[in-house]
Amino acid sequence: MELILIVIVIILTGVIVFPKIKNILTDKNKSTSNDRIRIEDALKHLYDCEDKNINCSLQSIAGSLSISFDQSTKVVERLESLGLVTNGNHLHLTNEGRSYALRVIRVHRLWERYLADETSIPENEWHLNAELQEHNLTPDDAKALAAQLGNPVYDPHGDPIPTIDGQLPKKEWRLLTSLKSGEIARIIHIEDEPNTIYAQLVAEGLFAGMHVKMIESTSDRIRFEANGEEVIIAPLFAGNISIAAISKFEKVPEVYKRLIELKPGEEAEVLGLSKSCRGVQRRRLMDLGVVPGSKISNEFVSTWGDPIAYKICGATIGLRKKQANQIFIKPTTKETVNV
């Protein structure tokens, strides 16, 4: 059964759960649609603040939604009238507001999971794409999408995906900055907001599931190993990375060489693909024979240096450097004639 990837339906089917907001959810008028989107974005911001034990205010909503203070005031007044928030010393979600927020978050994280597993859309574009789809997909669409993906528990960044009834798995992680020198842990979550910080972390080759070893942690810099390579980032950036201690039964992988390191004429054995290689790209490489145990050799480098021609399973294939960097290998003693 094919799933409709992009729906243009703006009407959400949650009117039974939220009778007070029936009018704004069923009106197709553009201004009303914008009103609903602001309400949903504000609810997400409130949920995020409560999840991080941060006080939410009119100013923080204005900043998060990129609107004026007066517009923020109107949004909060609307939320209060709908019974979605209470406004005492600080803004708080009601049970109804929290359920609504989790429904929007569920769609967002499911869509990011879909983009990671089923498409070739670049990682730094997942969040923005999901920001748009979270306001379009109905609960029935989200249910069908979850079923297609095998009802995943986490999104590709490591964030838990709310169940259809609003339940979340317990978070058992801590910040990378808490890791002591010499300790090894596994990256569980990389925060994808703000995008500027997330893009830098992606550029460093970091991803959920990667093992890291702390070298040095000071107020000026965080220095650690990731797959044998030294990474240095500012504490502000490290604050967006969450880790979990590895169990005594968990095997820490050795430092692997990557296919990009293989020189023309050299041969190696494929050990596996990086967890950062997902979806269509992962399936394409496996279809080409890039699977554990396969022998692969560097035949020659193109005039411009990218792509590179490799021979595997009797066929010559061209791989971009970015792709070759996601393939782990074990060099063999056999060498072909250098080109």
Secondary structure blueprint with pairings:
Layout: H1 22-26, H2 30-51, H3 58-65, H4 69-81, E1 85-87, E2 91-93, H5 95-118, H6 126-133, H7 139-148, E3 174-175, E4 184-190, H8 195-203, E5 211-217, E6 222-226, E7 229-233, H9 235-238, E8 241-245, E9 257-258, E10 266-273, H10 279-287, E11 295-301, E12 308-312, E13 315-319, H11 321-324, E14 327-335
Helix pairs in contact: 2-3, 2-4, 2-5, 3-4, 5-6, 5-7
Describe the structure.
The structure is a single chain. The chain is of the alpha+beta class and 339 residues long. The protein folds into 3 domains: 1-167, Arc Repressor Mutant, subunit A (Orthogonal Bundle), CATH 1.10.10; 174-245, Ferrous iron transport protein A (FeoA) (SH3 type barrels); 257-335, SH3 type barrels (Roll), CATH 2.30.30. It is 34% helix and 22% strand. The protein contains 11 helices and 14 strands. The chain has helices at residues 22-26, 30-51, 58-65, 69-81, 95-118, 126-133, 139-148, 195-203, 235-238, 279-287, 321-324, and strands at 85-87, 91-93, 174-175, 184-190, 211-217, 222-226, 229-233, 241-245, 257-258, 266-273, 295-301, 308-312, 315-319, 327-335. Helix 2 (30-51) crosses helix 4, helix 5 (95-118) packs across helix 6 (126-133) and helix 5 (95-118) crosses helix 7 (139-148). The model is unreliable at 1-28 and 335-339 (pLDDT under 50).
Features:
six-stranded antiparallel sheet; Arc Repressor Mutant, subunit A; alpha+beta; SH3 type barrels; disordered N terminus; 339 residues
Q: What is the name of the CATH class of the largest domain? A: Mainly Alpha
Number of helices: 11
Binned, the helix content reads: 25-40%
Instruction: Indicate how many domains the architecture comprises.
Output: 3
User: In the CATH hierarchy, what is the superfamily of the largest domain?
Assistant: Winged helix-like DNA-binding domain superfamily/Winged helix DNA-binding domain
H-E order: HHHHEEHHHEEHEEEHEEEHEEEHE
Number of strands: 14
CATH topology of the largest domain: Arc Repressor Mutant, subunit A
Averaged pLDDT, please? Answer: 82
**Major sheet summary line:** 6 strands, antiparallel
Gross morphology is: elongated
Unreliable residue runs? 1-28, 335-339
End-to-end C-alpha gap: 49 Å
Tell me the radius of gyration: 23 Å
